[in-house]
């Protein structure tokens, strides 16, 4: 078998687990190329020869993995997500075992599923156009502001950097969001508007119930609060109801559809899969790319064929 490993060594804490995975993966006669991403790496260039391999393993944080999944979408090339980042939420959403040997076994077995991606486009106030894939979630408002504050500290504090960022922004700007989903318009006020392909976060906490990566839909999630502290209530209910199907999610509203258009009352930054982009915008568009990625799954994944 032939394997391509795309690895971002600057993700997370610089773990060497990917090399443990490689040792567990390879058998006699196999070929493996490990391509290390440098500071100027380009996702399309990184996967330009992906069709020559039986499986492409993408290793990095959620931002790296999101870029590479988008670059590989609709190619039919099987990919395996390897968690090398800080939060590793995309890997958690797919639901595979995280241990290197277990992931190597899943790749050898070759069981795959077809997962959706989202695609988001916007033009910044300075006139710069952006288009990116959404593997997990994109957002405008508080979440983008928190990511912008947390990113410089992630290398030292890990996931705790997000909590310190939240404590430094207790009274974020309240926006009026005009949200059009499949032609139906809703107006809501809140501190963030997210477009999600998956709503699963740490410890299997689901921000919105019933969101899946294979349903052919995107989910728009509005945090309808005025202060960061008001998010304590939905987070607290999540301790007792991780799926949100029993107690719900107070102060959080969701809409589901294939095409989304969002307008904000004032310019705010945008983040995609944990990566914050320069500049601010008043509007963005998103659409679902159904069954765009062929992804390796093991028997633990909720997306495995039962």
TrEMBL record:
GO cellular component, one term: plasma membrane
InterPro entries: ATP-NAD_kinase_N (IPR017438), Diacylglycerol_kinase_cat_dom (IPR001206), Lipid_Phosphate_FormReg (IPR050187), NAD/diacylglycerol_kinase_sf (IPR016064), YegS/DAGK_C (IPR045540)
GO biological process, one term: phospholipid biosynthetic process
Residue ranges annotated for the DAGKc domain, each copy included: 1-124
GO molecular function: ATP binding; kinase activity
Keywords tagged on the record: ATP-binding, Kinase, Lipid biosynthesis, Lipid metabolism, Nucleotide-binding, Phospholipid biosynthesis, Phospholipid metabolism, Transferase
Named cofactor requirement(s): Mg(2+)
Family: Belongs to the diacylglycerol/lipid kinase family.
This protein's name: Diacylglycerol kinase catalytic domain protein
């Amino acid at each position: 078998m032939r394997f391509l490993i795309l690895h971002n060594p600057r993700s997370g804490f610089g773990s060497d687990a990917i090399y443990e995975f490689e040792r567990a993966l390879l058998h006699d006669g196999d070929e493996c190329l490990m391509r290390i991403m440098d500071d100027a790496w380009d996702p399309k260039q990184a996967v330009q020869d992906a069709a020559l391999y039986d499986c492409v393993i993408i290793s990095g944080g959620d931002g790296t993995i999101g870029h590479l999944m988008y670059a590989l979408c609709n190619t039919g090339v099987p990919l395996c997500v390897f968690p090398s980042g800080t939060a590793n939420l995309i890997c958690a959403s797919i639901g595979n075992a995280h241990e290197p040997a277990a992931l190597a076994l899943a790749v050898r077995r070759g069981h795959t599923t077809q997962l959706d991606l989202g695609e988001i486009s916007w033009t910044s106030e300075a006139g710069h156009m952006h288009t990116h894939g959404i593997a997990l979630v994109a957002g405008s408002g508080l979440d983008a502001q928190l990511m912008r504050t947390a990113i410089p500290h992630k290398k030292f504090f890990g996931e705790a950097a997000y909590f310190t960022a939240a404590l430094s922004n207790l009274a974020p700007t309240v926006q009026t969001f005009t949200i059009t989903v499949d032609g139906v318009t809703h107006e809501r006020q809140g501190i963030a508007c997210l477009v999600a392909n998956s709503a699963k976060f740490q410890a299997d906490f689901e921000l919105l119930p019933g969101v899946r990566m294979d349903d052919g839909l995107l989910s728009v999630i509005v945090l309808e609060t005025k202060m960061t502290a008001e998010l304590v209530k939905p987070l607290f209910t999540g301790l007792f109801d991780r799926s949100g199907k029993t107690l719900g999610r107070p102060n959080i509203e969701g809409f589901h559809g294939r095409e989304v258009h969002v307008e904000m009352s004032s310019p705010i930054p945008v983040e995609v899969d944990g990566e914050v982009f320069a500049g601010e915008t008043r509007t963005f568009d998103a659409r679902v790319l159904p069954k765009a990625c062929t992804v390796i799954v093991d028997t633990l994944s909720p997306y495995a064929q039962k």
